[in-house]
Write a structure and sequence with these properties.
Helix content is 36%, strand content 17%. The chain is an alpha/beta fold. The strands form 3 sheets. It has a 5-stranded parallel sheet with strand order 2-1-6-5-7, sandwiched between helices. The chain has a two-stranded antiparallel ribbon with strand order 3-4. α4 (93-102) packs across α5 and α7 (197-215) crosses α8 (227-244). It binds adenine (ADE). Adenine binds next to β5. Residues 1-221 form the tRNA methyltransferase TRMD/TRM10-type domain.
C-alpha cells in the first residue's frame, strides 16, 4: 500500500516516519509513505494557496488551483482520495480495515485555515472526520488515520496483536496486566496466573463485556450475542445485583 499526504506542512510527519513500528514498516517496505507540499503547485506569483472568503468573513480559504493540480499529479486509477474535515464520515476501526485491505493508494488531503473551497470536494472520494471537534489542520488527523491503517497491513505487527484490540470484535479490550503481581496493594487477578487457557479466555471475554457495558453501551445495541456471551452477561448482572444488595 502507498499513502500520499497532501499538506502544507510535510515536516509534521517527520517523527511519525522515524519512530517505532511505522519506522520499521517503512524500512521493510511493507508500506510507502510520502508527503507532497501543495504550495509547490500554486500558480500565484506570491506563492499563496489561500484567499479571503467570497461574501466576506473571518479567516482564509484554501483555493482550488494548487490543491486540485497537486491531486491530479499524484492520482492514478488505484487511488482513493480522502479529505480530512470535521464534516466527514466518522473514522473508526471498520474504516481502517477497509482502507488497509481494499485500497492500493490512499491519498489524504489536509486542510488548514478556515477550510477548503467547496468545489474541491468534488475531486475527493470521501470526507473523513476524527470526531466532533475542530483541529487547526488536517495533519493530526491524517497522521492518526495513517497510523491506524498501517498497523493493520500484513506483517507490520503480529495478527494476534490486533485481533484482540478494542473494537475488533465489537467490544472494548479486556484489562491487561504485567509484573509485579502486586503493586500498591492491587493484585493481578488469580485466573491470569493460573495457566488455565480456557478459563483465561472466558475471563477476558467477560471483562470485555463488562467494560463495554460500563464505558460504551452503544457498542452493544445491535450486537448479536453468542450463547456464551449471553451466559456471561447473566453472570455479570447477577454479580451487580449481589453487589448492590
Ligand atoms: N480537520 C479539522 N478538524 C478535523 C477533524 N475533527 N477531523 C478531521 N479533520 C479535521
Amino acid at each position: 500500500m502507498k499513502i500520499t499526504v497532501l499538506t502544507l506542512f510535510p515536516e509534521f510527519f517527520d517523527s511519525f516516519r522515524s519512530t517505532s513500528i511505522i519506522k520499521r514498516a517503512l524500512e521493510q517496505q511493507l508500506v510507502e509513505f510520502e508527503t507532497v507540499d501543495f504550495r509547490a503547485f500554486t500558480l500565484d506569483r506570491h506563492n499563496h494557496v489561500d484567499d479571503t472568503p467570497c461574501g466576506g468573513g473571518q479567516g482564509m480559504v484554501l483555493s482550488c488551483q494548487p490543491i486540485v493540480d497537486c491531486l491530479k499529479s499524484v492520482r492514478s486509477e488505484d487511488s482513493f482520495v480522502i479529505m480530512m474535515t470535521p464534516q466527514g464520515n466518522r473514522f473508526d476501526q471498520k474504516l481502517a480495515h477497509r482502507f488497509a485491505s481494499e485500497i492500493k493508494h490512499l491519498i489524504i488531503l489536509c486542510g488548514h485555515y478556515e477550510g477548503f473551497d467547496e468545489r474541491i470536494r468534488s475531486f475527493v472520494d470521501m470526507e473523513v472526520s476524527l470526531g466532533d471537534f475542530v483541529l487547526t489542520g488536517g495533519e493530526g488527523a491524517a497522521l492518526v488515520i495513517s497510523d491506524a491503517v498501517i498497523r493493520l497491513l500484513d506483517h507490520v505487527i503480529k495478527e494476534e496483536s490486533h485481533s484482540d484490540d478494542s473494537f475488533e470484535n465489537g467490544l472494548l479490550e479486556y484489562p491487561q496486566y504485567t509484573r509485579p503481581i502486586e503493586y500498591e496493594g492491587m493484585r493481578v487477578p488469580d485466573v491470569l496466573l493460573s495457566g488455565h487457557h480456557a478459563n483465561i479466555r472466558k475471563w477476558r471475554l467477560k471483562e470485555s463485556l463488562k467494560k463495554t457495558m460500563e464505558k460504551r453501551p452503544d457498542l452493544l445495541k445491535n450486537r448479536e450475542f453468542t450463547k456464551e456471551e449471553r451466559k456471561l452477561l447473566d453472570e455479570i448482572k447477577a454479580e451487580e445485583e449481589q453487589g448492590e444488595g
